[in-house]
Structure formats: C-alpha cells, structure tokens
Amino acid sequence: MKALEFVIFDLDDTIYPRRAGVMQAIGTRIHRYVVERLGLDEEAAMLLRQDYLARYGTTMRGLIIHHHIDPEDYLQYVHQVPLADLLSPAPRLKAVLDNIPAEKVIFTNATREHAARVLRTMGIEQHFTHIVDVRDMEYQSKPHPAAYRQLLTLLDANPQACLMVDDSARNLRPARELGMITVLVGNGQEDGVDFVIEEIAEIGEIMRQLLLEGWKVGKREG
Ligand SMILES: [Mg+2]
Q1: pLDDT at residue 211 above 90?
Q2: How far apart are the CA of 14 and the centre of ligand 1, in A?
Q3: Helices 59-67 & 22-38, crossing angle to 10 degrees?
Q4: Is the torsion defined by CA of 23, 24, 27, 32 positive or negative?
Q5: How close is the Cα of 13 to the center of ligand 1, in Å?
Q6: Cβ–Cβ < 8 Å for 75, 115
Q7: How far apart are CA 125 and CA 218, in angstroms?
Q8: What 8-state DSSP symbol labels residue 99?
Q9: Long-range contact list for 183-189, CB < 8 A, 24+ apart?
Q10: How far away, in angstroms, is 222 Cα from ligand 1 center?
Q11: Distance from the alpha carbon of residue 108 to the mean position of ligand 1, in angstroms
Q12: Other CB atoms within 10 Å distance of the CB of residue 219
C-alpha cells in the first residue's frame, strides 16, 4: 500500500498567503542589507538581488559565495519584520492540520526562529514535529539538491512517503525528481507538479483525494 508519512510545508508565502505582505517586508530588509553592507546604490542592489535569486535560489547564497557575508548576521537582519501586524491566528488552517494524521514538517530557506514566530502568530506551532531550516541545510537553500537530501536524512524519511507543498514550482522540482508528491500553492497553473491549490487550507482536499486513490496517511509505525 502507498503510505504517506510526512507532509512537508514551505513557510513563507505558503503557510500564509502572499497578500499578507511578510515576504514584501523581508524583501525590503534584504534590499537595505545589500545597500548598506555592500555600499551599493538602489538600482545596483536590485540588479544584484535579481541576479543571485536567478542563479542561486536566494540572495543570501550569492552573498555568501561572492561577498563572504556572515549568514547569521544576514538572517538576523532580514527577518526583523513586524509579524504581529501582518499575520493573525488561522483557525481554518488549524482545523485542517488537525485532520492530517501524517507528521507535519516545516522546510524553509529562513531560520527556525522566524518559522517559530510565524507559526506562533498563526496559532499553529503545535502541529509541526520538525522545522528544517537554512542552517540545517548548511546554507545550501532550496532548490539546491543538497537541501532535500539533508531534509530526508534529518527526518529519516523515504521520499516516496513525503508530500511537499511550496509556493515555488522551482523548489518543488527536485522534490518531485526524488519521488515526493508535489503541491504548488498560490501560484496559478504549473506543469511539473502533482497538484495546484490556491491557498494552504485546501491541502485538506488533497488529503481526501489521496485517500480515495488508496493512500494510507499516517505516522510511520514502529
Ligand atoms: Mg515560499
């Protein structure tokens, strides 16, 4: 029988919708970091961020490789955003998570402190057994394949027993190549993923569909 043991959630723009504005606030902090620490003007900073994002998946990865920045200094700086003003408790999502009997995991290019603050603000922190963050990935952010290998090692998980949900189709590609079920959230239609949903609470519908398809959903036995 096909068994689903882990549901793996991206954090930013996945667990809450993009319209919340958290990533926009973080983006503003990233921009200021690049301007201040590298001494660039506004336009040069913007071009540099676009270039690193395209080449490495995150600005941070490019800053580490080319400017030898201290990742901890960077992470601390960029996550100083007023989460309590941007996010609120999410009772509907909480109910959906309650009904998913598999282990729930956060897999994020941010820090576990930022993830924990987001989950706490939304009132859903107790649902997650693991937060796998950018330090756990040794700063090799998604979509670098090493990040996914590290995730599977830390969870001691078989990729065929995992479902991953992310707002980035690019981040889902390596997961699908490993054999995970992939769900794109909040980003329209996309080839190359198994399911597309508009917002995260719809993950409950995906679970029902998998059960109908004969999947057994639950924590690993023994
Ligand atoms: Mg995201």
Answers
A1: yes
A2: 5
A3: 10
A4: negative
A5: 5
A6: no
A7: 19
A8: T
A9: 185/14, 186/13, 186/14, 186/17, 186/18
A10: 33
A11: 8
A12: 11
What is the tens place of the pLDDT at every residue in 17-62?
999 999 999 999 999 999 999 999 999 999 999 999 999 888 999 9
Query: DSSP E strands: which ranges in the chain?
Result: 3-4, 6-9, 103-107, 128-132, 162-166, 181-185, 195-197, 216-217
CA 109 – ligand 1 centroid, Å: 8
CA of residue 103 to ligand 1 center, whole Å:
20
> pTM of this prediction?
0.94
What pLDDT digit, counting tens, does each position of 101-134 carry? 999 999 999 999 999 999 999 999 999 999 999 9
Distance CA 101, CA 111 (A): 26
pLDDT band per the 50, 70, 90 thresholds, residue 189 = confident
Q: Is the pLDDT of residue 94 over 80?
A: yes
Structural domains present in the chain: 3-16+88-217 (3.40.50.1000), 22-78 (1.10.150.450)
* Distance from Cα 41 to the centre of ligand 1, integer Å: 27
* pLDDT (average), residues 124-150: 95
**221 Cα: distance to centroid of ligand 1 (angstroms):** 31
Report CA(1)–ligand 1 centroid distance (Å): 31
Ligand 1 centre and the CA of 26: distance in Å? 12
